[in-house]
């Protein structure tokens, strides 16, 4: 495997991001979306994340193989110092360290953006994602039981939190 490059996503990356995400929508429980995104939806999602709320891509040998994002955690004003992370890596390249590089980059970007806490909401079926977040300083702060339903199954979500000043 070559070197993974993390860079800001551009509109030209939207189709690659959409393909990675839509695989998860259609086949996995990493997202609770049930309807695949159109290219227009993907571009709109990316454009909504500018400045401190941003989208990055992981590039390997010139190809987009994953993406990560920082999004507002909640809408109310008191939550403005917290963000939620999202990390998606192409399934055929899982467990090769790309997710770790991306999540590390997101934590640095969050700290550089002046945020205090990074939150992650991960289905409890995603043991690898939970382990990745734990390895980078996240702690489990709660379980939302049977909070979503996908593929005719009730799904629990692990709520994880990283206080950035504790990992610096």
From TrEMBL:
GO molecular function: acyltransferase activity, transferring groups other than amino-acyl groups
PROSITE patterns listed in its UniProt record: GNAT (PS51186)
Keyword Transferase among UniProt keywords: yes
N-acetyltransferase domain location: 4-165
Pfam families: Acetyltransf_4
InterPro entries per UniProt: Acyl_CoA_acyltransferase (IPR016181), GNAT_dom (IPR000182)
Signal peptide: none
Alphabetical keyword list: Acyltransferase, Transferase
Entry's transmembrane regions: none
Keyword Acyltransferase belongs to the record: yes
Listed name of the protein: Unannotated protein
């Amino acid at each position: 495997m070559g070197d993974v490059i993390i860079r800001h996503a551009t509109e030209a990356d939207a189709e690659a991001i959409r393909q990675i995400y839509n695989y998860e929508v259609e086949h996995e429980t990493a997202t609770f979306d049930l309807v695949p995104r159109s290219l227009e939806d993907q571009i709109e999602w990316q454009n909504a994340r500018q400045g401190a709320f941003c989208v990055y891509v992981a590039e390997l040998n010139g190809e987009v193989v994953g993406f990560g994002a920082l999004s507002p955690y909640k809408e109310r004003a008191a939550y403005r110092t917290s963000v939620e992370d999202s990390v998606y890596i192409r399934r055929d390249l899982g467990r090769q360290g790309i997710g770790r590089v991306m999540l590390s980059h997101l934590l640095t970007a969050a700290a550089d953006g002046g945020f205090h806490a990074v939150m992650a909401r991960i289905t409890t079926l995603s043991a690898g994602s939970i382990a990745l977040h734990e390895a980078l300083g996240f702690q489990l702060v709660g379980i939302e039981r049977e909070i979503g339903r996908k593929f005719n199954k009730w799904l629990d979500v692990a709520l994880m939190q990283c206080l950035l000043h504790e990992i610096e």
